[in-house]
Amino acid sequence: MPIHRPAVLEFLHTRRSCPLRTLAAPAPDRAALREMLTAAARSPDHGKLEPWRFVVLERGALDRLADLVRLRGPALGKDAATIDKAANAYLGSPLAVAVIASSKPSEKVPEIEQIYSAGAVCLALVNAVLASGWGAAWMSGWASHDRDFVEQGLGVAPHEQVAGIVHIGTATAAPPERPRPDIDAITEWRAE
């Protein structure tokens, strides 16, 4: 008997992120993106701490980040190809949102749970973008883990870190399918 899935579950079973190279302009306008950010902010947040924030990167900011990648790469010993790939991610992206993990002091909620919440926001944003008919790619890379880059380029405070950078635009090609996990191989059922 065929499985009937609600539309939202069917979406989750078939969703695919877009390769960054397949994203092009146009991108959502600010009002549309605000709706997607609002959906992403409904992610699990133990303690209602909002341990994350968004930095929206439009064209000028993306160009500036590409320049900063080219400046920081040699200082970190990165080769030319690695630097070009990272810079081109910003140059080729029509719009991006940096999700910043911003843990709050809490006796009740450990920092790791707050970081997990920021990761959940990244996935929720990708899903909101895809469900809205746009293309999305959740990326990070060496630059997003370089303190000088994230502090200068994204205004990340010393206690913060980049959870992910979600690139957004119009998908110019269908995302390729890839092998998915064998659920039976990674699932253990316990009744007691």
From TrEMBL:
EC nos: 1.-.-.-
Cofactor: how and how many bound: Binds 1 FMN per subunit.
Signal peptide: none
GO molecular function annotations of the record: oxidoreductase activity
Residues engaged in binding FMN: 15-17, 42, 46, 138-140
Keyword Oxidoreductase attached: yes
Keywords: Flavoprotein, FMN, NAD, NADP, Oxidoreductase
Record domain Nitroreductase: where: 14-169
Family: Belongs to the nitroreductase family.
Official protein name in the record: Putative NAD(P)H nitroreductase
Organism: Rhodovulum adriaticum (Rhodopseudomonas adriatica)
